[in-house]
Design brief:
By secondary structure, the chain is mostly beta strands. It is built from 3 helices and 25 strands. Strands 1, 4, 5, 12, 15 and 18 form a 6-stranded antiparallel beta sheet that branches.
């Protein structure tokens, strides 16, 4: 069962337009039975993994617990989604919110539990699209326990182009969210595998913990006012999202400084406006970069952790 939960937790704009998702303000909810005394709940058009945990958890020796709640501490309107990571006797499962229904072939899995977990999983739904989207946006706040991080992301899917007619991921974006005590708007840029393929659906997910990196019991993520942004996606679409590090001064004349709230090593990557990598510098907590060799203009940066996961992206200007 641990591998089942692991799977669900693993996954400059020239012309900007927003495309509203169904129930993107998470105001309308449904309640459904878990098969126990606990009633489960989820926003209409959205899903959690609570039902899978209650249905299949006991077969894997875990004690099911509710992880997703309707909460009145909303950014706008009446409700937000509250997701809480829970210790279910020996393992911590994250609260999850996804825009596609997860299904699992438990009989096939029990017959061959050493098989590839994705062979037994299907997703019904997602958001149908007919063009590219460059960003996922949402208003979030996050109270992690002991350095935990939340995982927010979107995948662009093209149906039937993979091996054997399977769906293929042609674009993705992810944000690893640190402590965020009040509602903050995050914008997660997408990266595509080529310049032309158009997706036909989007899969969107929010998780209160990164299950692959020591998830903590009690980490709590709130999500409200979710949206997707249409437009070209490239390195030029990186925008400031200073949740992990301060970047100053901006604009910079001689030096620019990056000061991180994290104590572990990060890598700073700096790109030109056409996407050329200009610098890649490992650092811990703070690094200063000379801008004397950079012509006047706009540059884009990315901060990545030790697993090469992008945790912050943005831009800065150089002046003389």
């Amino acid at each position: 069962m641990k591998k089942i939960v692991l799977f669900f937790a693993a996954a400059a704009i020239s012309h900007v337009a927003s495309a509203q998702l169904p129930n993107n303000s998470v105001e309308t909810w449904r309640t459904y039975a878990s098969g126990t005394a606990t009633d489960l709940e989820a926003p209409m058009s959205w899903y959690g993994i609570d039902s899978l945990i209650f249905n299949y958890g006991p077969l894997g020796g875990i004690t099911p617990a509710k992880c997703m709640y309707k909460d009145t501490s909303a950014h706008t309107g009446t409700y937000a989604v509250k997701m809480v990571s829970k210790d279910m006797v020996g393992m911590v499962a994250p609260g999850m919110l996804v825009n596609a229904r997860p299904d699992f072939d438990i009989a096939a899995y029990l017959a061959n539990p050493s098989g590839v977990i994705t062979d037994y999983l299907t997703f019904s739904g997602g958001t149908a699209v007919s063009s590219r989207y460059s960003h996922l946006t949402a208003w979030v706040k996050y109270a992690p326990v002991a350095g935990d991080v939340a995982v927010l992301g979107m995948q662009a899917i093209k149906s039937g182009i993979g091996t054997g007619g399977k769906d293929s991921v042609i674009g993705s974006g992810v944000l690893y969210l640190n402590a965020t005590p009040s509602y903050t708007k995050v914008s997660i840029p997408m990266t595509y595998v080529d310049a032309t393929t158009i997706p036909d659906k989007l899969l969107i997910s929010f998780s209160s913990s990164d299950i692959s990196d020591n998830p903590q019991d009690g980490s709590t993520l709130y999500v409200d006012d979710i949206d997707i942004v249409a437009g070209a996606a490239s390195v030029n679409s990186l925008i400031v999202n200073e949740l992990f590090a301060e970047v100053f001064p901006n604009p910079a004349a001689n030096e620019i400084h990056f000061r991180s709230t994290r104590k572990n090593e990060l890598t700073l990557k700096v790109y030109s406006s056409n996407g050329t990598l200009l610098a890649s510098v490992p650092f811990t907590q703070q690094v200063s970069l000379s801008t004397s060799q950079f012509p006047i203009g706009t540059y884009f940066y990315q901060l990545a952790d030790l697993k090469n996961r992008a945790i912050q992206e943005g831009k800065f200007n150089v002046v003389k």
